[in-house]
Design brief:
With 592 residues, this protein is α+β, with helices and mostly antiparallel strands. The protein is built from 17 helices and 27 strands. The strands form seven sheets. It has an eight-stranded mixed beta sheet. A five-stranded mixed beta sheet has the order 11-12-15-13-14, with helices on both faces. About 10% of the residues have low confidence.
């Protein structure tokens, strides 16, 4: 840029815009890719995996501050390739921009090695086959030495004194212990994603992880956190359109009793995604206590052209072309897993149970025939509108196949017990009926009003101001559930008709208790209000602990529970079903 001087001669002043020196540009790139030692470890391990490694050994000292070493048995590099690998934008993963669509390799930008080299003292030793190879030494981004070496096929990258030349970055590192935890989390995510990998990790001279290849996610989790933790999970496996969701989700009875762990992978790449986590957690509605959050280990596979992995410098996040179907598929897969009998609580090491009793002989029971055998005078589910077993989500029991009902026994007028192959199963009769009614009420609220039974003499209820407000806020929903109620001046109401889920049902008390429970409710969405009201009415309307059940009533309860979508959990997050294994009983009695 120039200006004219007083003498008329042209004077050029320095430009305010300049091209950064390559060393500064490299350090800026390093700031995006290498936030801390864990970032460097992640990039180096992913490079090893892309090189075809089946065994990786990682050595860490002082949380990665002073030493990071990653050794692999991958394809390796020759001398010329080594020198190219530390240049910016040098990569073996892509050749054209079109290759970025559906890219399956972990690393592809060609930034990791030069970025790490620019802020550390790095040594890379590699060979393409056992025997001759080369070592390249780099300090602060500049090559200081290249020499031949003899070594096995593969690559070893050693990073020393990370951020030694960037003191501003160095002072923001946390303690060695905190940095090590971040390194360990990164390595565990890789181990979960690549279960075919043999991974060894040493921290400050001590073995921290020694993981052989694992045959399944459960086996891998057991190798990392122990078998007891791995047994807390149930398997999820579901396909929605082109989206396949699989993995392990925590059994509701175990949620909140140990440290929470979340792992997500998209097309084999570990990612962070709050939306998918929320979708998975929403599947736990009405199965766990509000406020607690489950552990999740989920893998999502979908067409590569529907997800963009090139949106985050560290490739830790992805962008979906259409996010809603992915989140819906995740929620559906988790919800389906929670509906399986294996999600029931257990004592003594069993992972799953089924409704079919073993080895006791089972006899098929058709629900319609069963109802005809239950006398109206004592039938738990008899009487209009028979909502005890008539309606479940999507189908009535009459649309479902006959359920094999085992011989049932009532204990303490509270629990139903039956025997099966792996042990003894207990069902809480109140929780079971509550689950049945909740799903029926939700079905009613979503699909139409329920029938009701008209009272011979309408009843008047006098409500307090808060209960009156709750009635006005939920009046339409209560009508759908079968309550015919009209205002009667002030905070009084007249009840003309009520639902009748079972003959013991005290409708007026249920209505009053429900309004009392809903006072002060500020639930924002219609769906949430429906769930809240359905859960409250179901709790108040369900049979109670201490109620005697006839054999036919016990069978009807069993069949009704078998036809729900989430049989193992009541609406408050408590267990409906608990299994005690024979091994546990034998141990308690000293037989083992």
């Amino acid at each position: 840029m120039s200006t004219a001087s007083a003498s008329g001669t042209e004077v050029r002043r320095p430009s305010r815009i300049a091209i950064l020196p390559s060393a500064v540009a490299d350090q800026i790139a390093a700031g995006e890719v290498v936030e801390r030692p864990a970032s460097a470890v992640k990039e180096l391990v992913e490079n090893a995996l892309d090189a075809g490694a089946t065994t990786i050994e990682v050595t860490i000292e002082e949380g990665g501050r002073t030493l990071i070493r990653v050794a692999d048995d991958g394809c390796g590099m020759d001398r010329d390739e080594l020198l190219l690998a530390i240049e910016r934008h040098a990569t073996s993963k892509i050749r054209t921009a079109a290759d970025l669509v559906g890219v399956s390799s972990f690393g592809f930008r060609g930034e990791a090695l030069p970025a790490i080299a620019s802020v550390s003292r790095m040594e890379i030793a590699s060979a393409t086959e056992a025997g001759s190879g080369a070592i390249v030494r780099v300090a602060g981004g500049s090559v200081t030495d290249v020499s031949p070496t003899t070594r096995r096929a593969g690559t070893t990258v050693t990073v020393g004194q990370l951020f030694y030349n960037v003191p501003a970055r160095l002072k923001f590192l946390r303690s060695a212990r905190s940095e090590w935890r971040a390194v360990a989390e990164s390595l565990i995510a890789t181990a979960l994603c690549r279960r075919d990998l043999r991974l060894g990790v040493t921290n400050d001279g001590k073995s921290a992880l020694n993981l052989p290849p694992a045959s399944s996610m459960r086996v891998r989790i057991a190798g990392i956190w122990g078998g007891a933790f791995a047994e807390r999970f149930i398997e999820a496996d579901d396909v929605t359109g082109p989206i396949h969701v699989s993995g392990l989700v925590e059994r509701p009875a175990d949620v909140g009793t140990a440290s929470r762990r979340v792992y997500l992978a998209v097309n084999g790449r570990p990612v962070r995604d709050a939306g998918m986590v929320r979708a998975a957690e929403s599947a736990y509605r009405s199965t766990i206590t509000p406020g607690v959050r489950p552990s999740l280990f989920l893998e999502i596979v979908l067409p590569t052209d529907s997800v963009d992995v090139n949106v985050h410098p560290a490739k830790a996040e992805v962008r979906f072309r259409d996010r809603w179907p992915v989140e819906r598929a995740v929620e559906h897969a988790v919800r389906r897993a929670l509906g399986e009998p294996g999600s029931a609580a257990f004592v003594g090491g069993a992972r799953s149970w089924t409704y079919a009793p073993m080895p006791a002989p089972a006899h098929p029971v058709d629900v319609e025939v069963l109802e005809s055998r239950v006398a109206p005078a004592d039938g738990l589910f008899s009487g209009p509108p028979n909502v005890g077993i008539d309606m479940t989500e999507g189908a009535t029991p009459r649309d479902a196949p006959p359920v094999d009902v085992p011989p049932l026994m009532q204990l303490k007028r509270t629990y139903l017990m039956f025997e099966r192959g792996e042990g003894v199963v207990l069902i809480d009769q109140h929780s079971a009926h509550e689950r049945i009614l909740f799903e029926q009420f939700m079905n009613v609220l979503e699909r139409g009003a329920a029938p009701s039974q008209r009272l011979l003499f309408p009843a008047t209820l006098h409500l307090g101001p808060a209960e009156g407000d709750a009635f006005e806020a939920n009046r339409d929903t209560l009508t759908k559930l079968g309550f015919e109620v009209e205002p009667f001046g002030g905070n009084s109401i007249i009840v003309s008709a009520v639902p009748m889920p079972h003959p013991r049902f005290d409708a007026l008390r249920c209505l009053r208790d429900t309004l009392d429970a809903l006072t002060g409710d500020r639930v924002p969405s219609t769906a949430a209000r429906h769930e809240r009201l359905a859960a409250t009415v179901a709790c108040k309307a369900a049979i109670k602990g201490g109620d005697f059940l006839s054999p036919a009533e016990m069978q009807a309860l069993y069949v009704g529970l078998a036809n729900t979508t989430l049989p193992a959990h009541d609406v408050h997050g408590r267990s409906t079903i608990v299994q005690i294994t024979w091994d546990e009983l034998d141990r308690r009695f000293g037989r083992k």
